[in-house]
Every structure is written in C-alpha cells, then in structure tokens.
C-alpha cells in the first residue's frame, strides 16, 4: 500500500512526498503532545515533592521523584475506602445492568409476545430522558427505602439501563435464528437457549457494554455526590472534591496523586482493549 | 428441567429470512419473567420518577413533608427571575460554544488521522482518544492546576511568550470559555473516532471521480466529504448538544458556578436548588425545562435518523 501511495500512476517517485509525510507526522505529534499535556501534568506532579510544586518557575518533569503525595492521599482522605467504593459501585452497576439488560433484551429480540413492540418503544423513548431530570424523585425514593449512603442506593437505581437493553437487543436480533431453533429442537427451554446459545455468541457486545457502563460509572460525579453524604461512602471522584479547602487552596500534589490513581484502572483497561474501546465508540455513531 | 412434559416448548417453524421472531405464541408470562428485573428498575427509577418530577414541579415541596400546589409558579420563576434566566442563557451560551468547536476540532483531527500519508495512525488515534476515558472531574483538576495563576505551568508558558491570562477561573468573561475548553478536551476524541468511522465508509471512487473532474482538496471536502458524512454529522451534533445541556462536573470542580454565577449552568442550578437549598419544586421544574430541551434535540435526531431507526426496530 505504501508503495502505491508514494508513486503516481506513471510509477515515478513523487518528489516532496516524503517531506510532506514528515511534516504531517511532526504536526500531528505536536498536537498530540499538546492534548496529552494535562495527562502528563497529572503523572509528573503526582511524583513531585511539595517544594517543587510550589517553586517558581514551574516545571513539568520533577527534578527529584518522591512518593510522599501517594502516602499523603491515604492519610488526608479515606482513600483505600474510596477506591473500593468506586470499584464496588462501578463494578456492581456493570454486573447488574448486564444481567438485567441481557435478559430483557432476549425477551424483546427473541420472544414474540403481546406488547413486545410497545415495551421496546417505551424503552427507546426513555433514552431521551436525562438522568438529571429524574434525580430528585429518585433521591426521595432512595431516601424512603433507607438506602442513602449504602451501595444499594448507589447501584440499584442503575441496575437496568435503557441504552443497554436497546443495544443488546439490536445485537441479539442479528444473531442467526437457526442457532436457538436447533437448541429448541433438542429440547432446551428459553432460559437454556438464552444462557447457552445467545450469551456465548454475544460476548463482544456484552464486553463493549461492560466497558461503557464501568467507565461511565467510575467517572461519574453527580450521582455519588447526591447519594452519599459521608466521606466514607463517597467514590474517588466525589472524594477528591473534598480536598479543595474552603479557602480555595488546593494541595496539588495530593490531588494529582489521587487523580492518577483514579485514572489508572481505566488506563490499563484501555491500553489492553484499545481496539475494542475505539471500535465500540465508532459503532455507537453508526448504528 | 428433566420433567417429561418437555413438549411444552415444541419446535416452531423458523421465521422467513429477516422476519419476525420464530416462537410467535411464546407465553407473555415467560417473556415477562425475562423482562421483570429490568422493568421493575426502569419503572421505579425512570418512569415513575418522571411522573413524580412533573408533579413536584407544580408544588413548593421542600422535602420536609409540607407541600402545596403552586401551579405554574416555579416555571414562571424560571422564566422571570433574572438569576435563573441567566443560567438558561449560560447553558445556551455553553452549548453554542461547545458544539461547533468540538465538532471542528474532532473533524479536523479525523481528517488528519485519516490521511494515508500519516504514519502510525493507530498510535495517534489511541493517544488522542485517551482524554475520553479520563473523568471530567479529574480533567478539571488537572486543568485547574495548569491554569493556576501562581504555579500553573500553562499560565507560566503563556506569560513567557507575552500572554498574560491572569486568573481565568476568577474572570467573569474567561471562566466560561475555560470550562467549555475542558469539556472539549475531554470529549473531542469520542467525536473524532465517530468521524473516522464515517470517513472510512465513504467510497474512494467518489474522490477519484471528483479529482478527474478537477476538484481541489477544498472542493472535494465540501462536495464529497461533508454530504457523505451527513448522518454521522447529525449524530455528533445532536450528541454534543445534549452533552452540553447537561454540563456539570467541570463547572462544579473548577468554578462552582462562579465568578458572579457566570458559569452557573442549568444542572448546576438544579443540584444547588434541589440538594442544597431543598427547593424541590423549583429544581423539578428546572429538570422539566432540561427534559424539554433534550426532547427537542432528540426529535431532531429522530428526523435525521428516522428511516434507519424504522429499519432496525
């Protein structure tokens, strides 16, 4: 491919093509460096001693590296607890939502019953409701159930998700029908068809949805801010906001160490699964 | 499972190609069992709260049990109180700054990354997508540090090249563009990847035909790329506008709505009225204003995607 690109139809090498290649690469590299500056500042500042953070002129790379910010974030905040909370919250929502969504999606995609279409339309319509619009009644309900400051309060309201149901339903519909009919001939019941035929064939879709759900909830701020009132029950994102003192003075070193830890699990996940990540985004736009 | 009455799930003729589900008369009860967990959650935490928010929006509920029907008072307040009216204006301003800028940045980078001359396109795509996985709150912390008037690296670098930006987050004029910039920084990678996918769907032959007709790069862009991107463009515009209407995280972290409420957004106001001042009626009315705006944009999206949705539903 590169050969055909560097030669014109007559087969001669085009002068200036290599130069343009380098220029383009340099330009995009410079842009990328600019875009990643905030990421770099998080990483480098997290390892900087306080004296260097407050020194003038400011620098990007630490002259001496330290772990003091990481030890301080664990003493200034119940950080291990916050991390665990984030993990249980995002993981719990993902687990529940995937189970409930796939069950509902199966019924909508594979079972023909009265009201199927109506239910589907109601679910698709609810996609347009921003969650902020229902936040207050949801909070009242959670409060009545005594679930404020509990994992139930954080997780259960999000245990099913209209987008997930619709997304999985679209995928299930596309699976060949011969698969489940063959299983039914062999005497499998509906749940068996769902569990042994549909789910294993839908792993790519389930994984995509799992990534989306986990990342969105891990990163969410408003939801944990509303449903938790004690620092002990907060998540990393909501917990970090507590570091900003009443005077507006922010301990940047500790803050950046916290930010780095908040980003790390997602960054690792992203680097391992970057192709799927990026493809899943690309398909949301096209489907 | 092992009962001999297995005939209850008899073989049903396969549907014609691309047709309806095969087991036509599946018992509603069985389908309901599959739907039940999701339905309970959606009914309790989406559909019922919607109705409840509508009712609350006509009351002066405070969360302490006493609530009176006040008719359209809350809505009237939203559209007459200049402080709240300003939050609607701020959100509109935010949306009108965010959407076109995010779109242009994303499209420009998508075009650059789609250029066959570029080496390591996969690497750049990954690197530029990275901000999208970082939470808006964390991004906001990092930017706050970069823009700190005393120790901020960006402030310092700009000063060395002669640009004095001062304390942007305390500047009534610059605070808004700053929180918008942070949102663009975080989200453009998402739109960029969607654009790249759209660009790759455009048949190469169209460009070759245009070249033969003597169209330069700009003509090829306006006459081939843009029209062919139609659907993708519509999706990104609507998606970006809806995201902008819900701006909260970066504002909460960076400015708290200030200075002088210059960055106060609808969701920020909703959060403060509902959860700090406990004026549930007003906050619910605000949530319905937000819902109306989102609905309007979604309807526009449905007009663009109408045919495709019908195909798949």
UniProtKB/TrEMBL annotation, chain A:
Q: Which InterPro entries match?
A: MetI-like, MetI-like_sf
Cited Pfam families: BPD_transp_1
Q: Where are the transmembrane segments?
A: 22-47, 82-106, 118-139, 151-172, 193-215, 249-272
Which keywords does UniProt give here?
A: Cell membrane, Membrane, Transmembrane, Transmembrane helix, Transport
Which intervals hold domain ABC transmembrane type-1? Answer: 83-273
According to Swiss-Prot or TrEMBL, what is its membrane topology?
Answer: Multi-pass membrane protein
Instruction: Quote the subcellular location field of this record.
Output: Cell membrane
The similarity comment for this entry is: Belongs to the binding-protein-dependent transport system permease family.
Tell me the protein's name: Carbohydrate ABC transporter permease
From TrEMBL, chain B:
Q: From the UniProt record, list the coiled-coil ranges.
A: none
Subcellular localization: Cell membrane
Q: Which InterPro entries does the record cross-reference, listed alphabetically?
A: MetI-like (IPR000515), MetI-like_sf (IPR035906), UgpAE/MalFG_permease (IPR050809)
PROSITE patterns, A to Z: ABC_TM1
Q: Which residues form the ABC transmembrane type-1 domain?
A: 88-301
* Gene3D superfamilies (UniProt xref): MetI-like
Q: Does the keyword Transmembrane apply?
A: yes
Keyword line: Cell membrane, Membrane, Transmembrane, Transmembrane helix, Transport
- Tell me the membrane topology, using the record's own terms: Multi-pass membrane protein
Does the keyword Flavoprotein belong to this entry?
Answer: no
Transmembrane regions listed in the UniProt entry: 31-51, 92-114, 126-146, 173-197, 229-248, 280-300
Q: PANTHER family from the entry?
A: BLL4140 PROTEIN
Family indicated by similarity: Belongs to the binding-protein-dependent transport system permease family.
Protein name, entry field: Carbohydrate ABC transporter permease
Q: Which organism is it from?
A: Arthrobacter ramosus
